[in-house]
Amino acid sequence: MSKNLRQMALLLCAFGASVAQAGLFDDxxxxxxxxxxxxxxxTARQEADQRSNELSARTTEDNAQLxxxxxxLQNQIEAMRTDMARLVxxxxxxARDVAELQRQQKDALSGFDERLRKLEPxxxxxxxxxxxxxxAEKRDFDAALGVFRRGDFPGAQxxxxxxxxxYPSSGYAPSAFFWLGxxxxxxxxxxxxxxxxxxxxxxxxxxxxxxxxxxSIANCQVELKDTKAARxxxxxxxxxxxxxxxxxxxxxxLPRLK
Length: 258
Hints:
Blueprint: H1 3-20, H2 27-119, E1 122-126, E2 129-133, H3 135-149, H4 153-166, H5 173-186, H6 190-203, H7 210-223, H8 227-240, H9 245-253
Antiparallel strand pairs: 1-2
């Protein structure tokens, strides 16, 4: 019970006591006592109302402040959620960017490896012989052979001579000597042709083109009017490569060489 209410209770008790003792006072004194009591009760009531209003106002203000605090908290929470969503979106985009960069890097490395493989020496097979050649070596040989096949025999001579200068130890060398000799035969440079056919035989006597090279030497000797040397060459061909097609051709030519 608040102080004002206790005061009002005491006044009421006093009023009751005053009424009980009304016979002890005259009417004037009784009226004054009643008026004084009423005034005191009214004052107590007003004070109680004022305190109640102050308490109500304070409670209202506290509630308003609490609502404002809650609203601020909700705004902060919403801002945090927005920031969190933005960060999640950024993380997802970053993850996609990283994945894309990794894919591009993988593709770049794959392309680099592919280009590197093209530049690295590789196994090739020419005229039944397998060996390792680099890209430039293969490119230059194929280019020279292409010139020969187009019928440009002087150009083919130059191309094969340059090839043998650049790649003297190449696995293509025996075949290069063979085609160089054929290009020289086509331009009637028989002596040089013989030298290059013999270079093939010296370097690779078991080469697939070796029997043809021996037969071509004989042909060059025939063109040079050296029949005796041509017969000896054909006989050597039959002995060295008896199962070859060139040996069969030599057997047919020998009777015609007198």
